[in-house]
Design brief:
heterodimer; A: alpha/beta; Rossmann fold; six-stranded mixed β-sheet; 12 strands; globular; B: alpha/beta; 2 domains; 21 strands; about 20% helix; about 40% strand; binds adenosine-5'-diphosphate; binds magnesium ion
Chain lengths: ~250, ~425
């Protein structure tokens, strides 16, 4: 499980996260909602280990291990997966090769045997099929020439293959039509179980109709200003963040 | 010219004086080249065309002539790839009939047996060309008859360490495609130890003929490779060159192409990958001498360590060469703060209705791409390798022969594997 305590972080001396406390028990799915610029992506990047953020205080532990002391690839091997708000294009890197390299790197780090090309393709084809993605997605260069929706689905494909213990989905729903949204939700729901937990960052209540969260947290100005059950998402939809933030202040 | 360069030039001239009565072919042409070389010496820092590629390192080495006869046991057959195609093999600049497999439908001869210097523009115009003319002993001559599709042919140059001291060799090649002929050439150079390989190739591509050449330079990391290619393309003919600089301590490939007839085409796709204190230079001169000709050049360079890369591309469009289409692009990836890329495009345009452009980029690995890969569990060093590989992948994937792609892939993989993380 994930335990974030008093986490504060800045970029170029500018404070963005101002003391976040959040406990995500094993097997649960929590949603984080908040207005633009409130620090949702910053939180996900700090947890995944992107360069450029100074953690000024606090800690983040995954299954008791200090996440902040690990390199990004070590965090991934420990079971963390971030679905990027803006997935990165990798010209010249084939998607299948990318996925297999990632999967095998994690298996190696965990002391498991690597998959050969045939074993991998079998897994990958099953995953694309389950997510209603065309096989040719595996042949293309990573995210190059993908539509916005295809990029998001490709993130979900990676998650399905890497089978993380903890997934952070950063606005994976934005820009998706309803069919694509259902596919993303199915991707997450298929992984749900006692050994999987997720932080679902979203702007809209809509996604939470399909991925029903155990708890909802509201992030405003780098702090969690309110937490509650799934009904909180509906209240936000009705009243807006301003009302919640004012109430919390 | 520095004293060291003068001394090295002098040793080549002295060699020529000793050998001149035994060298094959037109003595007058050699004598003229020797006179030109004596006057110019080796290119030095004041030579504008060689500003970015100093030959200082060459002067630290005492070069000798290669052994005349190569004992079989000394043939570096481990360097000879199994490609399943006809091949002409040279060792230390000399054609080895025993190692060669002749193709059908093509006229092949050796320079030693049928020496002819061809019609190099200006004879010994360039110092390295003059040095080649002065000392050339052997080389291959290939002629494809009119209308014949000669398929694929490999020309493989190996350097042995048979002489136990540094050697220099200056093979002279001539390749001619008559009208409508086709040929795919796989030109491979490899070797062990310290040597100077200074080949000169004269190419003639006839009307409507098509030459595709894949040139893999994989010389020893202690070797020098200074090559000159002089091509003339007749109307409707095309020369497509895939050039990979993957080896050598210092390499310069000078490519001089004249698009002589209307509709002639030249395309260069090149990649250079090097580290340590190695040096790689691609210098091209493309002369649009007739209307409606097209040239496309794209060079990708990856530099690590203190390596230095150079791309100089000059495009000349003659008066009257209307509708010329010239494009050139250089992209460099620097993996270390001590690496350096020098790019020098030059357009000289004397016609008014032309389309010519050039561009250059120099960058580092993209931090977002690295993080994306790492966030998927790929360790940093491996992620860097993947992105470098990706930068070169397009060029390798474009190689028109599977065997060539395989050789290039393994050379790049070996280089990536040997790089410090
Ligand atoms: N690289 C950066 N440099 C400077 N400020 C940044 C950078 N990235 C984000 N910020 C700022 O940090 C705040 C939080 O951004 P972000 O975490 O992306 O918010 P959210 O994902 O909730 O929309 C915003 O004010 C944003 O402008
Ligand atoms: Mg965001």
């Amino acid at each position: 499980m994930l335990q974030i305590t008093g986490l504060a972080a800045s970029i170029d001396g500018k404070d963005i996260l101002r003391g976040i406390d959040l406990t995500l028990p094993q097997g649960e799915v929590h949603a984080i909602m908040g207005p633009n610029g409130s620090g949702k992506s910053t939180l996900s990047y700090v947890l995944a280990g992107r360069d450029g953020y100074a953690v000024t205080s606090g800690s983040a532990r995954l299954d008791g291990a200090d996440l902040l002391a690990m390199t990004p690839d070590e965090r991934a091997a420990a079971g963390l997966f971030l679905a990027f708000q803006y997935p990165v294009e990798l010209p010249g890197v084939g998607n299948a090769n990318f996925l297999r390299t990632a999967l095998n790197a994690q298996r190696r780090a965990r002391g498991e045997s690597e998959l050969d090309a045939v074993q991998f393709l079998k897994l990958a084809r099953a995953a694309t099929k389950q997510l209603s993605m065309p096989d040719d997605m595996l042949k293309r260069n990573v995210n190059v020439g993908f539509s916005g929706g295809e990029k998001k689905r490709n993130e979900v494909l990676q998650m399905a293959l890497l089978r993380p213990r903890l997934a952070i989905l950063d606005e994976t729903d934005s820009g998706l039509d309803i069919d694509a949204l259902k596919i993303v939700a199915e991707g997450v729901n298929a992984l749900r179980g006692p050994n999987f937990s997720a932080l679902v960052i979203t702007h809209y209540q809509r996604l939470l109709d399909y991925i029903v969260p155990d708890r909802v947290h509201v992030l405003v100005g780098g702090r969690i200003v309110r937490s509650g059950g799934p009904e909180l998402a509906h209240a936000l939809e009705a009243d807006g963040y301003a009302a919640i933030a004012a109430e919390a202040a | 010219m520095s004293a060291a360069l003068a001394e090295t030039a002098h040793s080549f001239l002295a060699r020529y004086e000793g050998l001149r009565d035994h060298l094959p072919g037109d003595g007058a042409a050699r004598q003229a080249a020797a006179a030109a070389f004596a006057a110019s010496g080796l290119p030095g820092p004041r030579d504008e065309a060689w500003k970015y590629t100093p030959l200082r390192a060459l002067t630290e080495i005492a070069f000798h002539a290669p052994l005349a006869a190569l004992a079989d046991a000394r043939a570096p057959s481990a360097l000879l790839p199994e490609l399943g195609m006809p091949r002409l093999v040279l060792v230390d600049g000399r054609v080895q009939p025993d190692l060669s497999v002749l193709p059908d439908g093509v006229h092949i001869s050796g320079f030693a047996a049928a020496p002819e210097f061809g019609a190099l523009p200006g004879g010994g115009r360039d110092a390295m060309a003059a040095l080649n003319t002065m000392l050339a002993e052997d080389g291959v001559r290939i002629e494809v008859p009119e209308g014949v599709d000669a398929g694929v042919l490999a020309v493989i140059s190996l350097a042995s360490e048979a002489a136990h001291h540094p050697v220099d060799f200056h093979p002279r090649h001539a390749i001619r495609l008559n009208a409508g002929a086709r040929l795919t050439l796989l030109e491979l150079s490899r070797g062990d130890g310290v040597y100077l390989h200074n080949p000169l190739t004269e190419l003639q591509v006839g009307a409507g003929a098509a030459l595709v050449a894949v040139r893999l330079q994989e010389e020893s990391h202690s070797a020098f490779h200074l090559s000159g290619t002089y091509a003339e393309i007749a109307d409707g003919g095309s020369y497509e060159l895939f050039l990979l600089h993957l080896g050598a301590r210092l390499v310069r490939s000078e490519i001089d192409v004249t698009l002589a007839g209307p509709g002639a085409r030249f395309a260069l796709r090149a990649a250079q990958a090097l580290g340590e204190a190695r040096h790689a230079d691609i210098t091209t001169i493309v002369r649009h001498a007739a209307p409606h000709c097209a040239s496309r050049q794209s060079v990708r360079t990856v530099l690590d360590g203190q390596a230095r890369g150079v791309f100089q591309g000059r495009v000349e469009v003659a008066r009257g060469a209307q509708k010329s289409d010239g494009y050139q692009m250089s992209q460099a990836l620097l993996l270390s703060p001590d690496a350096e890329m020098d790019t020098k495009p030059q357009l000289e345009i004397y016609a008014d209705d032309v389309k010519c452009s050039h561009g250059a980029t120099i960058g580092e690995l993209d931090a977002d791409q690295l993080f994306y890969l790492q966030s998927r569990g790929v360790p940093r060093a491996e992620a860097r390798g993947m992105l470098v590989h990706a930068f070169l992948a397009e060029t390798v994937a474009a190689l028109p022969h599977a065997g060539a792609r395989g050789l290039a892939e393994s050379a790049i993989a070996a280089w990536l594997g040997a790089r410090p993380a």
